[in-house]
Structure formats: C-alpha cells, structure tokens
Amino acid sequence: xxxxxxxxxxxxxxxxxxxxxxxxxxxxxxxxxxxxxxxxxxxxxxxxxxxxxxxxxxxxxxxxxxxxxxxxxxxxxxxxxxxxxxxxxxxxxxxxxxxxxxxxxxxxxxxxxxxxxxxxxxxxxxxxxxxxxxxxxxxxxxxxxxxxxxxxxxxxxxxxxxxxxxxxxxxxxxxxxxxxxxxxxxxxxxxxxxxxxxxxxxxxxxxxxxxxxxxxxxxxxxxxxxxxxxxxxxxxxxxxxxxxxxxxxxxxxxxxxxxxxxxxxxxxxxxxxxxxxxxxxxxx
Length: 284
What we know:
InterPro entries: EXS_C (IPR004342). This protein has ten helices and no strands. It is mainly α.
C-alpha cells in the first residue's frame, strides 16, 4: 500500500483503542466490525506463541483451547466485540437513540456466547456447558442476523418492487446478488453447527473452516453496508453535489413584478423548507 494508506490504517486501528473517549465516526465502527470477523485469527495468537515456546514439537495440541491459556485466547477473541459495545454506548450517550443500545446488546450477547464456547471447548463433552453454549450461540446468531438484514442492509421490505429488498438499489442490474447475500449470510451466521457432531473432521479443521467463512461473510457484508450508508447520506443530503433551495427560481419571468412568495414551491423546495422549519432556521 501507499504510505498514506498505511498511515490511515494504523491510525484507524489505533483509534479503536480509545473508543468511548471521543465521538464515534463511520470509520471507527466500520473498522471495529472488520475485527469482529477475525475472532479465529485473534484467538490463535496465543496458539502461535505457545507453539514457538514448545519448539513446534508433536505435542502441539496442548496449546489449543484445552490448555490453561484459554482465558487469554478468549480475551483476544472478544476484544473487538468489547470495543464495538463501548462505541455503541458512546453513540447512545451522544445521540440519545435507543437503537445504539440495541446494537450494544448484540455485541454483549456475542461476548457471552464466545465465553460459553471457550468454556465448553476447554472442558469438552456434551454436558450442561455444551447446552448453555448452544442456547446463547443460537440467540446471538438470530440477534446478529436480524441486525444485518434489517439495520445494516435495510432490506426485508415486503412491499417493494423486488420482494425482501428495498426501494433503492445500487446493484440494480444484478438483483440476484442480493438474494445470494441474504441466503449466504444466514448460512454463515449459523456456521457454528459444524461443532455439534462429535464424529467427523478434526475440531481444529472445523474451526479453521468456520473462521474462513466468517471472513468471507464480512467481505460480502461490506458491499451492502457501504451501499446502505451511501443511500442514507444521499437521502439526508450529506452526500450530494447540490442542495435544494427553499424557494423556486423561475428564469422565464420578466422584471419580477409578481411577488416571489406567490410562486409555488417545487417538490424539492418544499422538502428543504420543511427541514429548515424543523431545525428552527429562518426562512429565506
């Protein structure tokens, strides 16, 4: 990457460590969401260190989730979730919108689900800890899936031209990609069912497959999340080349004998005038 790009990346990652101490911008929570899909990578940092310390011998399995280092792996895994939880609470404090608290609840439930997962993987078996993990993991998957589709992507609208989508679509010439994204997002959100069978591929291999699928899901998620953000910015005139004036301009008039206030406002002018009145700005 270019030097400026590397600087932006390091600065954005560094700002995550100060979450809660300043207003949250789009790049802050967007970058935090990227790290939420790197649970497999972050949790295995302790595995790499343990393998190096053991000299990469054949007894490497004792460095996994069954080792005494599992609390450290858990902390590294849920660190992005904790950062996003703090960011969501900060956004609620700054804006007063309860939707941010609901979003914070999503990350809180994710932390609980991963704690139950690491605890079960450490002790193993099909006892009570396995059942508790399945319950909390199911709750978190449904919670996160609903937020993905309804809030992050703003889809599942039943009365639009394209069922289950929204009115405005950037990729309108490839409608099928939206339905593929919905289906694949649902399947990967429940990829954890790979851990349920006691017989089958090695558990480390299943974890690797689940981690790769989650990274691919986040890559796909980015396109529709940014699309939804851009459409929202355009709708609120935060991303536009021109802002509608609160009055109409009629270049065909002569010397302006008629009173300007008697001219009908067009649709965009009426909308802008309404916005000015709501904000308490003086009318022009």
